[in-house]
Design a protein that fits this description.
- By secondary structure, the protein is of the alpha/beta class.
- The protein contains 13 helices and 9 strands.
- A hairpin with a 2-residue loop joins strand 1 and strand 2.
- The chain is globular.
- The N terminus and C terminus are likely disordered.
- The protein binds 2-acetamido-2-deoxy-beta-D-glucopyranose (NAG) (4 copies).
- One 2-acetamido-2-deoxy-beta-D-glucopyranose binds next to loops.
- This is GDSL esterase/lipase At1g74460.
- Belongs to the 'GDSL' lipolytic enzyme family.
Length: 390
Amino acid sequence: MIESSSAVVYRTSMGLCSFRTMATVTAIMLLLLGFGSEMGSCKVVQFIFGDSLSDVGNNKFLPRSLAQASLPWYGIDFGDGLPNGRFTNGRTVADLIGDKMGLPRPPAFLNPDLDENMILENGLNYASGGGGILNETGQWFIQKFSLYKQIELFQGTQEMISKKIGTEAANKFFAEAHYVVALGSNDFINNYLQPVYADSWKYTSTGFINYLMSTLEGQLKLLYKLGARRLVFFGLGPMGCIPLQRVLSSSGECQENTNQLAISFNKASDKLLNSLSKSLPNASFRFGDAYDVVKDVIYNPQKHGFNNSDTPCCSFGENIRPALTCIPASVLCQDRSKYVFWDEYHPSDKANEIIANEIISKVSFLRPNATDVPAEAPAPSPALDQTIKQ
Ligand SMILES: *[C@@H]1O[C@H](CO)[C@@H](O)[C@H](O)[C@H]1NC(C)=O
Ligand SMILES: *[C@@H]1O[C@H](CO)[C@@H](O)[C@H](O)[C@H]1NC(C)=O
Ligand SMILES: *[C@@H]1O[C@H](CO)[C@@H](O)[C@H](O)[C@H]1NC(C)=O
Ligand SMILES: *[C@@H]1O[C@H](CO)[C@@H](O)[C@H](O)[C@H]1NC(C)=O
């Protein structure tokens, strides 16, 4: 009656990640013998939910999406320098934080080479340019994953992994993982602040932020229910100072009303994350933002090693700004490390580095342990390299 047990072993760069798939009788015997704690020990990986600030290639595989970073000069300072789906010249904030913690960089959910082993090794990134907390945000990009959709896709991933390694091992894997949720600016820039969207006339700013918070609360509780225990939510930067917002005024100043929305959003989400962390057992849900530092960088660029904080490095000529994105015919600035903004919306690699360091310093459990973090950022895995080359 005793059925055979088989061991499935995945080789990883860090060692072995092993799971036993076995008949119940054998499992119970092993438990009685004290092997229970050995079942399914795997790598700690990240699951990332977000918008264009964290997208690593999902929109590249959404053929009708108008939010794209698939043409030069996106990615010029990353890997082989070809566009890889990131909406910047180099690394995203989530890349940089993960690197500092010694965690692998998760591939895009829509990567055609994706399989269970790749997820067990690297985690997964569902972030999609144009996406928001609200389903209705960013409709004019036609195709994108909003946060609810991203969580739905994550549920699919969980089923896939459970089938592969068993429910118990999968539960452990998902409970030990790190979760990043980073959305909100599109809910303002590509929804509330646009008169064509119903939300802009339906809500006052306070009402709209309350609506965002109640939606986000439901989404974070859903992630908790699905097993997330360690989660960081990134707050917004001074989004009234992105080049796209500056061109709205003849003087080119930051839009202070827009910045005020970001400040209120950050306050409310800080409160939400703290309250969830207290009320949900075992949850460490943290809020981290870099608003003040980025504001200082924008007003005092020289102090932080920058030379320009109000126009994009990649730009299609002064007269026709804002060109929606940086395009192959665009002209690049001379020194990309001296520009705070890469395009009309998105910070440069160098600015992302400052943002990542600030978030790490604010979110205590992210602080890297000096003894087990490599000094240099790990190179992208071969699997990820392939994604980048496509
Ligand atoms: C949002 O979209 C998801 C599908 O991605 C759907 O299941 C959900 O019901 C929608 N929620 C609202 C409030 O429209
Ligand atoms: C909290 O953690 C303890 C110890 O690891 C565990 O026994 C318990 O089931 C956890 N509870 C929840 C709700 O995650
Ligand atoms: C800063 O930019 C100005 C033009 O905007 C240029 O003249 C100057 O040389 C730049 N300085 C550095 C250190 O790059
Ligand atoms: C780093 O981690 C090791 C073991 O995981 C621990 O012994 C050490 O105290 C930690 N160092 C710091 C600075 O937290």
